Amino acid sequence: RGGRRSKRRSSARVSPIPARDRGAPGARHLGRGRLAGAAGRGLPPTRGARRTLHAGAARRGSDLRWPTAARRGMRRRPGASRGGGARCGPASTPTSSWRSCTARIPSGSSSPALRTSSGTRSGSSGRRTRRCGRCGCPRGRGRRPWRRLTDELERMDEKLKLTEYHLDNKNLEVKKINDEKKAAMAAQFAAEATLRRVHAAQKDDDMPPIEAILAPLEAELKLSRQEIAKLQEDNRALDRLTKQKEAALLEAERTVQIAMAKAAMVDDLQNKNQDLMKQIEICHEENKILDKLHRQKVAEVEKLSQTVRELEESVLAGGAAANAVRDYQRKVQEMNDERKTLDRELARAKVTANRVAVVVANEWKDSNDKVMPVKQWLEERRFMQG
Questions:
Q1: What is the mean pLDDT of the chain?
Q2: pTM score
Q3: Which residue in 70, 150, 157, 298 has its CB near the most CB atoms, within 10 A?
Q4: Number of Cβ within a 10 Å radius of residue 46
């Protein structure tokens, strides 16, 4: 027992908890006494160590327990596995497993977070969730947290860059303010030095009075003020002149713009004139062609007029024959008229002869055998048939 106690005391000096997680509630209590010695040698904690652990946690308001991964590393061999399942890695020492688990526990965490990290039972299924042997994190879900952590890291880097940029700007502003402050202090020191000199000069009896010293300075100051006023007036006059020159320049720019617009219009008009000249040349060529055609037509008309004159002369030469033909035609018409009248008279004579013949024929015949005109006979026949 004495040897074990000495070993425990020697091992209690080295704390298995990382320096960053020693501020967590219950962490200082874990690094004391038999509990730290048991964790350092890879042995399970005794009942007394557990009591001290839970008592310290109860005083601090937390429910800190011995990590499940550490118990697994203590109770099993490095190559063994529960139920033939794959493990995240061999639990070499309980100290490393305790560090990996405590690294994931934030400072000031409550008991539910520790319970979930140590592998408690789920309320719905009642089975233990398979977790990593080192850190106690659920298996198969390591990618999404890493992605989230990388995204958060990038965001923090961006924020850090922005803060560094703002910090540089603030440092520059502070530097400017310090420079101004130094310049003001230097001016103040110079003024104080001049005042000291003046007071020292007043104390000396050999020095002339201050009024005699200040009078020429005041005269020079008045002259300098007058010169400054003249220079200010000159500056005002120059400003007026510059304004006038600027106005004149603006007017000149406007005139130049108007001239440029006119020049552009002149260019457009010149282009239009060139187009019109080309069209006029084309029209002249067309007029020449039309003149040639007109001359040809005039020659043709002259030829036709000559043929008409020749025909008129031939008609006049054949006028006698035409008159004779007309006389013969008139005589033929008269003869045709006489023939028509003779035909009429002949028809009348035939009718009268027929009537006379009918009368003569009907004189010695009976009433039934008398000759009847054809028209009368046809009318009576129709009447009888109807």
A1: 70
A2: 0.24
A3: 70
A4: 13
